[in-house]
């Protein structure tokens, strides 16, 4: 790669980042599906932020590819497991953007980043530990008094330890559940991509003219009382037989979007033809709700 291309790549990476990345040196595991078979690519994490992770990966990846990543943050017992998308790749160096990162894992990364940005926080923490470890110097006649206080402090620390352990176990269980769900979604997406063609993108105007039958949505009573109106916009996949296969909300009031989704599911379209055969298509459907 030329120097100019390298500078352009670095500039593009910097422009795409929404949150500051911090250097880190820990193992990084990348899991992807090749022909429906999981493949693990080991690597080394070089930088981390709330939005993504960068590292050196021992394997070939392509920009836009969806994978699962796992790494352990220093001083944090629970691993970070998340779905991610490859944003750049070159000379074994890859950049990944998190997709749907759980809130608790984002908070862990935020806490770690705060410690990295504020070294005095770690220094104060070490000083407090050192002060707690130092035995109190007192006169012999005062020895009997702190014994009860020390016992009380020990009980409080034990309770705090048990509470902290319970929180860590809860986060670990929640993180495992999120990891399993994310991995299942990744498998389903890979199987769908391997088993069928990607739907063609067709304009909303074209598909509107091919509607055979449609059901008007019910205006939610609560939205009507609130005076809520406007558009409910949905991304739709129309199967080759003209039925609505998938719907995904894009924008709009939650109640209006829910009502529009229920109605559009029953719509029927004239099958879209490409090269003499009916194919699945992807389009956008906008349903307008207007108060009279």
Polypeptide structure, described:
The protein is α+β, with helices and mostly antiparallel strands and 292 residues long. It has 2 domains: 1-122 and 149-195, Thrombin, subunit H (Beta Barrel), CATH 2.40.10; 200-289, TolA/TonB C-terminal domain. Helix content is 40%, strand content 32%. It has 7 helices and 14 strands. A 6-stranded antiparallel barrel has the order 1-2-3-6-5-4. A hairpin with a 2-residue loop joins strand 5 and strand 6. The longest helix has 52 residues, at 144-195. It is extended and about 70 Å long. Mean pLDDT is 78; it is low at 1-9, 11-15 and 141-145.
- How many strands in all? 14
CATH homologous superfamily heading of the largest domain: predicted glycosyltransferase like domains
- Characterize the biggest β-sheet: 6 strands, antiparallel, barrel
CATH class of the largest domain: Mainly Beta
Q: How many separate structural domains?
A: 2
CATH fold naming of the largest domain: Thrombin, subunit H
Query: Which regions contain 5 or more consecutive residues with pLDDT less than 50?
Result: 1-9, 11-15, 141-145
- Helix and strand pattern: HEEEEEEHHHEHEHEEHEEEE
The helix fraction, in percent, is 40-55%
Q: Determine the number of helices (DSSP H or I, runs of at least 4 residues).
A: 7
What overall form do the CA principal axes indicate?
extended
Mean pLDDT equals: 78
Structural class: alpha+beta
| Beta-strand content bin | 25-35%
CATH architecture call of the largest domain: Beta Barrel
Strand order of the largest sheet: 1-2-3-6-5-4
The span between the termini is 62 Å
């Amino acid at each position: 790669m030329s120097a100019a291309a390298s500078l352009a790549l670095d500039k593009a990476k910097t422009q795409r980042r929404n949150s500051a990345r911090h250097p880190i040196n820990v193992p990084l595991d990348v899991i992807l599906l090749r022909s429906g078979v999981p493949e693990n690519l080991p690597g080394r994490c070089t930088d981390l932020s709330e939005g993504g992770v960068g590292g050196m990966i021992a394997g070939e990846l392509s920009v836009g590819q969806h994978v699962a990543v796992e790494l352990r943050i220093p001083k944090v017992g629970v691993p970070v497991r998340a779905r991610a998308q490859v944003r750049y790749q070159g000379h074994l160096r890859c950049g990944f953007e998190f997709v749907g990162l759980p809130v608790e894992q984002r908070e862990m990364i935020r806490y770690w980043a705060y410690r990295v940005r504020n070294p005095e926080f770690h220094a104060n923490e070490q000083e407090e530990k050192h002060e707690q470890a130092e035995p109190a110097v007192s006169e012999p006649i005062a020895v009997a008094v702190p014994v009860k206080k020390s016992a009380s402090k020990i009980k409080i620390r034990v309770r705090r330890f048990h509470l902290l352990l319970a929180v860590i176990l809860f986060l670990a269980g929640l993180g495992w559940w999120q990891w399993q769900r994310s991995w299942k979604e990744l498998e389903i997406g890979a199987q769908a991509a391997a088993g069928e063609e990607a739907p063609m993108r067709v304009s909303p105007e074209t598909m509107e003219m091919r509607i055979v039958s449609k059901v008007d949505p019910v205006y939610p009573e609560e939205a009507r009382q609130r005076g809520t109106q406007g558009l409910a916009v949905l991304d739709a996949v129309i199967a080759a037989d003209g039925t609505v296969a998938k719907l995904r909300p894009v924008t709009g009031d939650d109640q209006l979007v829910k009502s529009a989704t229920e109605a559009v599911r029953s719509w029927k379209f004239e099958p879209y033809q490409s090269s003499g055969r009916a194919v699945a298509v992807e389009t956008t459907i906008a349903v307008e709700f207007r108060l009279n």
